[in-house]
From TrEMBL:
<keyword id="KW-0812">Transmembrane</keyword>
<keyword id="KW-0328">Glycosyltransferase</keyword>
<feature type="transmembrane region" description="Helical">
    <location>
        <begin position="21"/>
        <end position="42"/>
    </location>
</feature>
<dbReference type="GO" id="GO:0016020">
    <property type="term" value="C:membrane"/>
</dbReference>
<dbReference type="GO" id="GO:0005737">
    <property type="term" value="C:cytoplasm"/>
</dbReference>
<dbReference type="InterPro" id="IPR008166">
    <property type="entry name" value="Glyco_transf_92"/>
</dbReference>
<keyword id="KW-0472">Membrane</keyword>
<dbReference type="Pfam" id="PF01697">
    <property type="entry name" value="Glyco_transf_92"/>
</dbReference>
<keyword id="KW-1133">Transmembrane helix</keyword>
<protein>
    <recommendedName>
        <fullName>Glycosyltransferase family 92 protein</fullName>
    </recommendedName>
</protein>
<dbReference type="GO" id="GO:0016757">
    <property type="term" value="F:glycosyltransferase activity"/>
</dbReference>
<comment type="similarity">
    <text>Belongs to the glycosyltransferase 92 family.</text>
</comment>
<keyword id="KW-0808">Transferase</keyword>
């Protein structure tokens, strides 16, 4: 029995190790190994990298009991999405404002509304059912979420957990999402601008994970009781200042986590941008946001924060979804109730808004 390996290989019909065929085989093997190493390095380089500051934030979320969104899903940017623009909101006892809020944002360009009800006791369901039947609203009943903080104290995490839940539900259903409160009305500043086109420019291009819109705080217009008209026509006076506390429109497949409704961060190092493509810090603290250039030339949010004295009193009684009830009171109302500047920019939507609401009332009467 031959002991020489070459003799064995020749007996089996294998080519000589010095033959041209053997040399080609060795070259192919080397190329495959090199390609495999290169592919592995490429995968490591393009894996789910968080924004540079996110490593400590991951610990924050773990401590506070808020799950980080997983990227284990099967949808891509080239997918055909059921919705283009979805507005997300968590609300409590807001039945008298829901219809106006939905109809306005339909005019702006949103084609679906993901609504999370937090312990409401009013007639919100009667308002939303027609929209649900039309496929415009998805309603989720979402109770108050309590978790322990680092010191062991119970805190409310309803908003944060609700947002992550909503993103996980809808990231493969909608191309873009926006997170708002029911007292916030978002729209492009110029009537010539399309919201979907703007989102494709900011986020669809891959330049940013999301785009932030700054808020303008509207006061009570000296209404003591809830006025009969629409919010947008009854409250027309605001502060001169563009306030801190931005809101974000974003790609839900890129969201890696959040601090709260004002600050999100994204996978692959994609920044949160403002309307001029400037990168914003991941923070909600006023001293940092105060340094940001807050402009509303492209995007803006009319924030009807106080409304009337009666509305504020009702707000105090029902409490806040965020759980920051100690931060609210009549002192805050007096600080926030600024009526120094007349602003009717949103009035261009009023004729269509009245018509849309009248049509809804006629259909459901």
């Amino acid at each position: 029995m031959p002991t020489d390996l070459r003799q064995v290989l020749r007996r089996w019909g294998a080519p000589s190790t010095n033959s041209p065929i053997a040399r080609r085989i060795r070259i192919v093997i080397v190329l495959l190994v090199v390609f495999g190493v290169f592919w592995w390095l490429l995968q490591m380089a393009s894996s789910d990298r968080l924004h540079p500051i996110d490593q400590s934030e991951a610990l924050f979320h773990a401590v506070y009991g808020t799950p980080m969104p997983s990227r284990d899903f099967k949808c891509y940017e080239s997918s055909r999405f059921q919705y283009q623009l979805t507005a997300f909101a968590i609300f409590r006892d807001a039945d008298k404002y829901l219809k106006e809020w939905i109809e306005f944002h339909r005019l702006v360009g949103f084609d679906h509304f993901l609504m999370y009800n937090n312990n409401s006791t009013d007639n919100f369901r009667e308002v939303l059912v027609p929209y649900m039947r039309a496929g415009l609203v998805t309603l989720i009943d979402f109770p108050t979420i309590l978790t322990h903080d680092i010191s062991g104290y119970l805190i409310q995490n309803t908003q944060k957990v609700g947002i992550i839940d909503g993103v996980q539900r809808f990231r493969c259903l909608t191309r873009y999402m926006g997170i708002f409160d029911i007292d916030e009305f978002f729209f492009p500043t110029s009537p010539k601008q399309s919201l979907l086109t703007l989102m494709n420019t900011f986020v669809g291009s891959g330049k940013c994970g999301g785009v932030a819109a700054w808020r303008l705080n509207f006061g009570s217009n000296n209404h003591t009781t809830t006025p009969p008209g629409l919010v947008l026509e009854e409250y027309t006076r605001r502060s001169n200042e563009v306030i801190t506390g931005k809101k974000v429109l974003f790609n839900p497949r890129q969201m890696a986590g959040l601090h709260n409704t004002h600050s999100l961060y994204f996978y692959d190092g994609k920044p949160l941008c403002d309307e001029k493509f400037r990168e914003l810090e991941y923070t909600t603290f006023s001293d940092h946001e105060a340094k940001a250039i807050r402009e509303v030339d492209v995007l803006r949010i009319n924030h009807y924060y106080t409304k009337s004295y009666q509305d504020w009193d009702e707000r105090l009684k029902r409490g806040t979804i965020s759980g920051n009830n100690n931060d609210f009171g009549w002192k805050l109302f007096l600080e926030a109730d600024n009526n120094e500047y007349l602003d009717t920019t949103v009035a261009r939507y009023l004729p269509q808004l009245r018509q849309a609401m009248s049509a809804q009332n006629a259909v459901h009467s």
